[in-house]
Amino acid sequence: MTMNKNLLSGSTTMLILKLxxxxxxxxxxxxxxxxxxxxxxxxxxxxxxxPLLHNLEEQEMIESYEEYAEGNRIRKYYKIxxxxxxxxxxxxxxxxxxxxxxxxxxxxxxxxxxx
Length: 115
Prior knowledge:
Strand order of the largest sheet: 1-3-2
Number of helices: 5
Number of strands: 3
Structural class: alpha+beta
CATH superfamily: Winged helix-like DNA-binding domain superfamily/Winged helix DNA-binding domain
Order of helices and strands: HHEHHEEH
Largest sheet: 3 strands, antiparallel
CATH architecture: Orthogonal Bundle
Number of domains: 1
Distance between the termini: 25 Å
CATH topology: Arc Repressor Mutant, subunit A
CATH class: Mainly Alpha
């Protein structure tokens, strides 16, 4: 079954913040990890990810730092800030409420119970 990619667009920030809540990562690592965790359902392009990271950094949701990688290359890593953790929690709560109401409609108005 093919997934409508428009469903991802409103959730991208939350998903990136969640990845960084688990551990600091560099850009392509985030792309790979998001794809892996979603069974290849979500696949971001670098041209989508890096502007998002730049905006999150400007909003102080994430910070970046550089570290040497293999081959004496410098790699830019990103980490979530306290402000970013707060936004992640807010977005998760909003997502859970949204999913609950969608499921309620799909179930004919009956409250959907998750275990």
